[in-house]
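REVIEWER CHECKLIST
Item 1: Sequence provided? yes
Item 2: Single chain? yes
Item 3: Sequence as submitted:
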Amino acid sequence: MSETRMLRAKTGTGSESSQDSERSAEQPVVGVLGAGRAGTAFARVMLRAGIEVDICSTRPPKALRHHLKIYAPGANPVRPEEVAVRTRSRGPGVVILAVPQEELDEVEPDWVSGPEALRTRPITPVLVDATNTWHDELLPGWLQAAVDEQLPSSMAIAGRFSGAHTVKALNHISHHDLEEAANPERALKQRRAVALAGDDNGAVGRVMGLLVRMGFDPVSLGGLAAGKIMEPDGPLFNRSLRREDILHYVR
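Item 4: Structure as written out by the authors:
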């Protein structure tokens, strides 16, 4: 808290409208579950766009701090259970899932939806599924069952994290290319296009707003099932795309 706000809190000076103005000036916060190569790449792009990032991993925040100084300077290391609190109180309530699918049993759904007290709030959190299924991974049983039925992995993830609206996004760009691909200085039509898919229009809209701010041109494919073409071996995976390339597949 700034010295001015601390003074106001102690003395009661300053108008209510000026305090509201200061709150609105706070940077939005987006959470990232996973501090590996993909998670830190997402963090760097968002930080560059002026978005505050809370990031967690299996390491405690104190141990994670040095890692982030190297790979995502400016990101806030937090405990997993803290992610939902700040993303919903300061920001669009968006959490990016950047954990290998073979480790998803270690991710608690409450890390996205938050404690019971938060669940009474009218805005449902949004989980951005940025994960991919690789053939050499030993998947959790609930996820392997969906893969065996040739369903999009995001549909199984949405079922596990049922306290949030799941949107498939950011998985079809390599983390090696992410920073170069994201360019918020360009006009929208000149940017690299990215696909997303989700069943809730409000959640899709929130993620589209995030992607625009990060420097992409987002194109919705439709419902979550449509996101299957974003997976490895799909026609959109790891390709440099323009809006018209993606629109060809819109349902």
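Item 5: Key structural point noted by reviewer: Residues 201-214 form the longest helix (14 residues).
Item 6: Recommendation: ____
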